[in-house]
Amino acid sequence: MTSTTEFARKYGPWALVAGASDGVGATFAESLAARGVDVVLIARRAEVLNDVASGIAERHGVGTRVLALDLAQPQAAAQILEGVADLEIGMLVYCAGADPNFAPFLSNSIETAESMVQRNCVVPMQLCHQLAQPMVARGRGGIVIFGSGAGLAGGPNMVAYGASKAFDMVFAESLWAELHGEGVDVLGVILGKTNTPALRRLEHSRGQLSSEDAVPEGAAAVEDVVAEAIENLGNGPTLMAGEQMRAAAGFLGSLSRNEAVALISAASAGAMGAS
Ligand SMILES: NC(=O)c1ccc[n+]([C@@H]2O[C@H](COP(=O)([O-])OP(=O)(O)OC[C@H]3O[C@@H](n4cnc5c(N)ncnc54)[C@H](OP(=O)(O)O)[C@@H]3O)[C@@H](O)[C@H]2O)c1
Fold this sequence. Notes:
Bound molecules: NADP nicotinamide-adenine-dinucleotide phosphate
Helix content: 40-55%
CATH architecture: 3-Layer(aba) Sandwich
Number of helices: 10
């Protein structure tokens, strides 16, 4: 266990957290701030983001900056880089990425799928390309990218989402292979069902949850998966977060690809909340 000062020296002074107004990102930002790292918070809802930022500043006395923007827009990465040009970013945490739809590929417009790829693949890749260069030059830093069990094998209702999460996992693994020898920790965190507002909204909209405040059955606590991720920053490239995710990944890995897809398809027919 590293001390707060050591942690901030390795991963600070600033961390950029994409998808920080709620869920995994807000909790991750809070945990970094508790370790003395200043945080740049990104999401679309400015008001919510400002509340998260002021709460973090009050509780931990760190610096905060808010960038309210849509990560699915083509100019998102350029806007972010401009917004942090005066800061030394020692860590990038890319959380935004859940699928609010869980619907067949052909029932949505192609723009919906393109936005998913933009937000989940193109923008994190652009940010890594720019922000990792100074990290390598400093010989320290960290990059965390959130993936999903949905990226381990294909299945219906998550065509673009699952594919984007497979990209995220392999992207993080490959980046780790290139950067961990340069002092930059890269970690792909693969989540299973996790109790966040995004999951609760999805399950409620599908009639699987009585209210948006109820706890989805079998969901991991967001604090637990974030704590596990922070504990394992230096143990990349990939962390299957939580016992259930590890068991599921182990089982899927024991199957052929075709068997795995058949299994996911059967589970999906039972209307699982893949978020
Ligand atoms: N929760 C689960 O069960 C689960 C399971 C497997 C994997 N994961 C992965 O874990 C990560 C975090 O998931 P999560 O459940 O916390 O939900 P999420 O919807 O990925 O994250 C919510 C945060 O992302 C922001 N966000 C979403 N779309 C955005 C956009 N286009 N532009 C800017 N900000 C955006 C939201 O803020 P605004 O609405 O204010 O923009 C919010 O702050 C995701 O990568 C997801 O794929 C989650």
